[in-house]
Design goal:
Layout (H helix, E strand, L loop, with lengths): L9 E2 L10 E2 L4 E4 L3 H13 L4 E5 L9 E2 L2 E5 L4 H6 L4 E4 L4 H14 L2 E2 L2 E2 L4 E2 L4 E2 L4 E2 L4 E2 L4 E2 L4 E2 L4 E2 L4 E2 L4 E2 L4 E2 L4 E2 L4 E2 L4 E2 L4 E2 L4 E2 L4 E2 L7 E4 L4 E5 L3
Parallel strand pairs: 3-4, 3-7, 4-6, 7-8, 9-12, 10-13, 11-14, 12-15, 13-16, 14-17, 15-18, 16-19, 17-20, 18-21, 19-22, 20-23, 21-24, 22-25, 24-26
Antiparallel strand pairs: 1-2, 5-6, 26-27
Amino acid sequence: MSSTTLRVRVKEDVSRGGVGVESDRSALLLYGAGGHGVAVVNVLLDDLPALLAGVIDEHAPQLPSHVLGVPLLGGYEVLPDLLRQGVQRVHVAIGDNHERQERVAQLTAMGFVLTSVISSRSYIGYATNVGDGSFVHAFAQVGAECQIGRGCIIQGHTTVAHGSVLGDYVQMASGVNVAGNCQLDNGVFLGLGAAVLPRVRIGRNAVIGANAVVREDVPDNAVVVGNPGRVIKIKPH
């Protein structure tokens, strides 16, 4: 289904008792007031401003009181009270892949329902699934028969072509192009303008530098730069 026919799509985590349908009627809490949090707030204000219950950030005392006019409600300590008030949906808007994964685990263990945010100005192809807690920015395009994992970030002006599979907590910066039938394993990061040629597999936690062109498979934890892309180091596990 194309997201161009909908406003922001909010999907419950079916593993937590949700029905897996799209809804725009219940309040959404945003966790993260940094740069990526601002981007997510901007999409929600553009599509469904009444949806946002507020923003949470552990550094709240050092931050401004609002994010683009949306109130910063506090830090971790206010979460139990918000749950008691019936605010259950949460989207974790943290750019760092590892930290985002940790916060998702923490919040879902508390009882929050992980929620994906997909801009109405993005395009999602037929028979494509976007995992719980993922974010798809305006002007991103995801082709048919793709699988997007849990907690992914797909920034604007990015293309994921048909049949490609993204694992959990993959992040794609603006201008990335992933060709058809590629596989990006969990925790992969692709920098600005990177390109991945057809049928390439990129291993877990690999980092692809800005404007790199990946023409062959990449091992786990590798750092790749240049055109053609070359591995310059393997990160510690």
